[in-house]
TrEMBL record:
<feature type="domain" description="N-acetyltransferase">
    <location>
        <begin position="10"/>
        <end position="98"/>
    </location>
</feature>
<protein>
    <submittedName>
        <fullName>N-acetyltransferase</fullName>
    </submittedName>
</protein>
<dbReference type="InterPro" id="IPR016181">
    <property type="entry name" value="Acyl_CoA_acyltransferase"/>
</dbReference>
<dbReference type="Pfam" id="PF14542">
    <property type="entry name" value="Acetyltransf_CG"/>
</dbReference>
<dbReference type="InterPro" id="IPR031165">
    <property type="entry name" value="GNAT_YJDJ"/>
</dbReference>
<dbReference type="InterPro" id="IPR045057">
    <property type="entry name" value="Gcn5-rel_NAT"/>
</dbReference>
Length: 104
């Protein structure tokens, strides 16, 4: 298997997740979210063990964030992977971040 697999990322709102799939439809990873109006709260990102280390999580984050941007929505990155990805690629995704007041 190549280190750079071709995956397609799509939103599956019925399952509340963005999915990364191989051309044959095999699910390789997912970024789970909760939606509150125009806000997408990322809660968990997972790549199936047999596909780890092949860049799928980064591709999943990049494409999911692009889909959020295309819908003119905002994000709350509770998921540690999505949070690190957004921070690493700052300022590219800073406009997507919803300003959330700190908990008191």
């Amino acid at each position: 298997m190549s280190d750079n697999l071709t995956v397609t990322v799509t939103d599956n709102p019925a399952e509340s997740r963005f999915e990364a799939r191989l051309p044959d439809g095999t699910l390789t990873g997912q970024a789970v979210y909760e939606r509150d109006g125009r806000t997408v709260v990322f809660t968990h990102t997972e790549v199936l063990p047999e596909y780890e280390g092949k860049g799928i999580a980064s591709r999943l984050a990049q494409e999911a964030l692009g889909l959020v941007r295309g819908g003119d929505d905002r994000i709350v990155p509770l998921c540690p992977f999505i949070r690190r990805y957004v921070k690493k690629h700052s300022p590219e995704y800073d406009d997507l971040l919803l300003d959330v007041p700190p908990a008191s």
